[in-house]
Amino acid sequence: MARCEIKAEELTSKGFxxxxxxxxxxxxxxxxxxxxxxxxxxxxxKVDVTADGGRPVISIFQxxxxxxxxxxxxxxxxxxxxxxxxxxLAGSTYLVAVAPPGPKPGIDAVRCFxxxxxxxINLHPGVWHHPLIALDASDFLVIDRGxxxxxxxxxxxxxxxxxxxS
Length: 166
Hints:
The longest helix is centred in the N-terminal third of the chain and has 4 residues, at 13-16. It is built from one helix and 17 strands. By secondary structure, the chain is mostly beta strands. Strands 2, 10, 11, 13 and 14 form a five-stranded mixed sheet that branches.
């Protein structure tokens, strides 16, 4: 059994760029609308869900059992046909465990980021990731491909490894 501990690093656009987009307010991508009453932070992520006739769907994931640290990674999954965006609907803290696209990754390829204060993420197609790891009971707006689960989800068990995130 392979054993390792991964220290969660702060989520930044630069550090996360190989895996996807960070979704947060960006004054450089904002424009005043509605007579100046609203500031629109525009085009913050590249949603990519239309391959092979897919369509975007918006869902809410309700976290019923928050995770605690240290957290043991159980599995990784990827969606080859689509991106997948997670945006907390309140100022939640959550972890994003990822590995680069490609063949099933080794544990040395797994990185973990901690997202705070309402910052969202958009995973690029093919990026390996652990299912949602919320540290608070919270709701997430999720934008992904409107298909059956099995059509665009490949999973990889991590049961033969002991990967702890702290």
